[in-house]
User: What shape does this take?
Amino acid sequence: MEVQDEQRLLEEIRNGKKEAFAELVEPFIAKAYQTALAILRSPHLAEEAVQNALIEAYQSITAGKELRRFSGWFSRVIANRALDLVRKESRYNGLDIDSVIVHDTSASPIDKLLRKEQSSEILKAVMSLDTQQRIVIVLYYFQGLKIEEIANVLHINEGTVKTRLHRARMNLGKIVSFAELKAKVVRL
Amino acid sequence: MNELKLKSELQQSLSKVAVPDSLYRFAREVPDICEREREASGIQSKPNGRRKLKLFSILSKSAAAVAILAGTFSAGVSVSPTFAAYLKAVPGFDIAVDWLTQLRERDGVQTAVKHGYTPIEAKTVQFGGTTITISDVYLTDEELLFKAFIRTNEYDVTDGRSRVHIEVDPMNLRGGGSTTGSSIAETTDESKGPVLQVSYKFQLEENAVREFLAKEKELRFEVRKLIPNIEMKRTEIEKMGTIAVPVDHSKLLHNIVIEPNQSLPIAASDPDWKELILEKLTIQPTTMNAIIYGKKGWTLDFPREEGAAPYLKDEKGKVYKYDPSGPVLMLEDGKHQLPFSSSVFFETEAQTLQLHIGTVLVTEKEPSGSFELSKKDTFPKTVQYKNRYIVIEGAEFKDGYIRLKIKKEYPDQKILEGISFYIPEYRAQLAQNKELARRVDALREKLKIDGWERAESSGSDPSRLDLYIPAPKQDNYTISLQRVYDPVAVNQDYFIELK
Assistant: This one.
């Protein structure tokens, strides 16, 4: 979406045109959900994260928040709202995100989306990473956040983001042979 | 490890994960939700303030009201006793008829029921304080559809933030699946507590149904409670019980499979795309799936927005919308399965079906063009790429990037859509060298541009588009050109022979 179109829609929303909100956010919903799903590994939580991000977006716009580029801002919002839900895992233990490793069970709902015959090797490999590494990989390579932005979202320094990215890539390298990377064929 | 490959593969595979339709509906409801919340709390909204959010019904009351007995049902079709009974039939619950009708019209169940096709009976089971009904179960040769209606005292089903969830999973059928939507059902016995409705769709593996029918007489669903365990930092899964739903093989109807391998010629002038191929159309009692492919080395994307999305239409003018919610079937390179809501299965007189293709976004995996750029060049300089002529009216060679001024093709042009301009060797360096990548990112921020490698209007010069390309310092460059998410406006209808 063009900057001018974004700004027009933001103005229309502020002027009370409700339909403009859906027009503004619809192009970003898919990527937001896919990002949240990859981080949270739970369709239910991913939906919740996106719902929260949409609510925040609307509230921020109507409160007059200045958004130079909505798409970039919304990317950070969805990352934050997904991270909120990850942090819920740690809050009661007084841990911070640095030390949280959410052990996902093999019967996690996401596995239903990732049955081996129906998903790519790389996606399965990314989903098998621990939470810390999965988050940085998804935010960096899929959501397109910069190192600095990821550092802000995670409240860690840029060096730590780089370290996690490096480790994640190393781990992915062990799991996946890129020469063999192909979408699996499902014969019909 | 090849980072570009990693990025590209991750983008491609993750972007194919289906998105619940409920989110798009939720987006449309957000302004009203916020207003209601604001009125209820009697306070003004706060920027960035987040409040506890309930799981809102994906079908608003107003939407349901508008849709009361609309469409085929209101068109004077006589209602069979089975259908009349089924309308109210979610055993165990008193679900509002209007709401249920609306829900079923979307997923094709209404059409099947209207024709008396209810091969698998609903089943209600109680586990302690939880009542679950498995309803609208449709097993085809390649898919399993069902709905779960849940009323429970285990957690507040209206609380979207609940840590606890109940899920229902088929145990004795091989396949991958997901929910396609969930909502709080509108009930007429609200005093008994809210009911959560979750729709599921499973794409079954090859031969899974044949093997199932050969040895099984019932579909078994496991009901599980998912409880995040904070101390152990893992999700505990508590099996609540099993629901066995009898399946009478003789009642199951089989899919109609048409394999036309039909060319879908593209009339629009495009240098790379003359046709798509419709490989297969599977007509199920509930929904329809079409497999379409283009060619190797390219990926296709089909938008879901009305006007650009594909759809099917029957001879009576009924439209079957593209509905990509649910699990994604990843086929071999370049092939796509397009799912459509509802089905023409029971229209035995139907001779043809019309497939409309609106817009197709095409992406090539490798660049397919290039041009030389030198500091000694004089401008304007015209570059031909495929069937387009790109007029470069000026160039600035800066530290870390090149800025090209591209002549607009028409006055209101905002972007040179679908073309990525880049220097492959430098892009590879950026992927390997994080410090370099960081500097380029910082540069982008400093330049206040939204992205590299694409020509778009900056507003500063109304007659030109600005194109910024990360570049090392040198005198001559080879700029590669690649079609990326390039929209091909097909806007054509194709007739598929059904007989």
Q: What stands out?
A: The two ends of chain A are 37 Å apart (CA to CA). DSSP finds nine helices and no strands in chain A. The mean pLDDT of chain A is 73.
